[in-house]
Amino acid sequence: MNPPASRSGRISIALFVSVALTAVVTVVLTTFALYFYELEKAQRWQQLHKTLSTSADELAVAVALPAWNFDETQIVTIMKSGLSNRDLHASVVQPSSSKHPYILVRNAGGQLDAAEQLPAGDELLVEKRPINAGGQNIGSISVYASPAVLLEQLRQRLYAIGGMILVLDVTLVLSLYLLLWQLILKPLTTIGRYAANVKAGLNPGAAPPRDWFFGELRTLNNSIREMVALLDSRYVAMHASEERLQIASSAAAIGIWDWNILTGEVVWDEQMYRLYGQEGQRVDKPFELFVRMVHPDDAIPARAMLDQALAGDGEFDIECRIIWDDASVHFIKADAMTFRDGEGRPVRMVGVNYDITAHKVAEQELRRHRIHLEELVAERTAALSVAVLQAQAANQAKSIFLANMSHELRTPLNSVIGFSRLMADSKNMLPDEKRNLAIIHRSGHHLLTLINDILELSKVEAGRAVLQTEVVNLAEMMQEVMDMVSMRAGQGGVELVLDCAGMPAGARVDGTKLRQVLLNLMSNAVKFTERGSVTLRVRGAQRGGHCELSCAVLDTGPGIAAEDQQRIFEPFIQAGSGGAREGTGLGLTISREFVALMGGQLTVQSTPGHGACFQFAIPVEVASSLPLEPGVEVAALAAEQRGRRILIVDDNEDGCALLRSLLGPLGFELRSAADGLRALAEVEQSSPSWCSWTGACPSSTAWRRPGASAPTAPSCSRASSC
Predict the structure, then answer these.
(1) By three-state DSSP, how is residue 22 classified?
(2) pLDDT at 418 exceeding the cut of 80
(3) In Å, how far from its chain's centre is CA 396?
(4) Which of 231-245, 288-302, 517-531 has the lowest mean pLDDT?
(5) Which residues lie closer than 8 Å to 399 by C-beta, 6 or more apart?
């Protein structure tokens, strides 16, 4: 049984009816008031217009003769008399024979003053009439009226109507509420309190209290009297029913208890004593017996639940352990219902107890089996975790091995590419030999690209890839990417489009990785597009010193199927069913990892037959200045600069030989060393102008000087590969 709702949560029916009826009356009165207000407003405006028109007509006739005689004093006098109405604001007489009009304007104090300028104001009303004398038009007169007084009167009228309606509403609400309280609410409250007492078992045979019952409430009062009499007649039948209930509860092993909270008396039936191991006994205070037998660990929660039920915050529903006199432990479940008086105070609690020991024993056995199963699952999970860690360690070892092996492979390959380039520049080579060397050179470049891709992927998987930011000229970088794919695009008849907007001139970013991502995406787009166009679209959104750089590569190629749009980012996977394609299938994998490393996400949108769009957005820092422009290429040293010394340090003899072949023809005096100790000895002995590389520079014959002056030392134009 739930406790009665608090009085603060109920809305008085008298207040509700009063407010509702007042609202209806207010709407009706407001409607009529607004109707008559608008009617009066229209009449007042019509009257103002009529007054203005009449005054204009009268003044036009009155000033005709003075205007014909040019009697200025008479004209002004007639104008003042014509503006005696306070609603008229000004008048203007304009003779045809004079450019100077006669103007009278009412000032803030209500006096008429001569003015030099025509009255101005959007709210002013004006009527203009011609002045005729002797059958001739000798001028015109304009009369102005101000609606300010009219509007103020209407506003005051509206406030008065609102105030009257408000006073009427308050009076109506108070009157209706007091009337309904005296006639309905007070008798109903009395009847409700009496009904609650009867329901709680307090004086069920007493007559209801006396009060002024009127109309239907009198019928209700009589009905309650008859109901109480009916309850009295059925009281004996209830006792018989209790006996039958006692038999049923004994058969179901359910104990019933009754607690009179006001007197503290607790009554147990026979089954309650059986549940507590006290069969055939009687105790004066069963509640103390319960407190003594309940398990110490359950005593505090049981008491807290009982206090909560008495406070009306919940029902009494607990499970607890009791200890019999023979030290055996039994599980008891108790449910109870709380009865309250008209004021919401608890007066009685009736509940049942039943033994759930067998259920608890079965539940504990099931819990033991579940714990054992969880332990087995934990053991299997731990074994699986060890296997996963071993697999991850093996994968990382594989990545480290590939990274090291790729470096070892790339070192001799640089020599192959460099020497093949040198041999191709020889003037003594036959055309067939140059063609064969070109094949070797291209194959070496292709192999170097594959090894570089594997190396980059291995670095990423091994967790060794890091950002190396620098100030980059974004416009030059985008144009450089377009230039690098332009030759292949021209061979395939594909149009290249560069679309840049909002891009900062310079930004601090890892230029090498960003260039490689854009080059990979553009190369793939050109490779898979047989006709049409490939667009590199770049947008910049600057916020303070930072910028969000959005890049997208769009092509008009065959598109990518939905099932391939996730597979293409996996290593060694190439989309499409048109046969084998050149490359390793690592470009998109590396590009996705580089974009993630720079703080973005590479995604693709494509529909088969309608091209594809690869796009990403990365945050960059806007640079305050652009990087220095590179120097010019050096073909050879000037005569006065020949003989400058360079020390080449490389543990690979082929690399040293390649650098000597590249730098010797330029006019440098070269020395070499195979390790660091020999290099230091050479430095002390020969004092070279500049100490250079720790490895060979691949496939580069272009050398640049650091400044605009004569080159004092060459630096490789592809420093990232040196």
Answers:
(1) helix
(2) no
(3) 38
(4) 231-245
(5) 457, 458, 459, 461, 462
Q: Which two tokens stand for residue 674?
A: 């195979």
Residue 270, both tokens: 């026979």
Is the separation of the CB atoms in 415 and 656 below 8 Å?
A: no
Q: Which residue has the higher pLDDT, 299 or 237?
A: 299
331-348 residue pLDDT tens: 888 889 888 888 888 989
Beta bridge partners of 617: 550
Q: What is the arrangement of strands in the sheet containing 112-114, beginning at the earlier edge strand? A: 112-114, 102-106, 88-95, 136-145, 125-133
d(CA 163, CA 165): 5
DSSP letter assigned to residue 577: S
Return the amino acid letter for 470.
Answer: E
Q: Read off the tokens for 301.
A: 């929660």
* Half-sphere exposure at residue 717, Cβ-oriented, CA atoms within 13 angstroms: 13
Which amino acid makes up residue 584?
A: T
Q: Could you give the maximum distance between any two Cα atoms of the chain, in Å?
A: 138
Q: Which helix or strand (DSSP H or E) is residue 704 part of?
A: strand 703-704
**Nearest residue to 525 (alpha-carbon basis) of 534, 538, 515, 513:** 534
Report how far residue 48's alpha carbon sits from residue 150's, in angstroms, rounded to the nearest whole number. Answer: 9
Token readout for 351 is: 């509940």
Q: What is the pLDDT of residues 145-203, one digit of tens each?
A: 888 777 888 888 888 888 888 888 888 888 877 877 777 777 777 777 777 777 676 65
Task: Choose among 199, 355, 341: nearest CA to 277.
Answer: 355
Is residue 366 classed as helix, strand or coil in its secondary structure? helix
The helix/strand/coil state of 61 is: helix
Instruction: Return the sign of the alpha-carbon dihedral for residues 499, 504, 506, 509.
Output: negative
Amino acid at 548: E
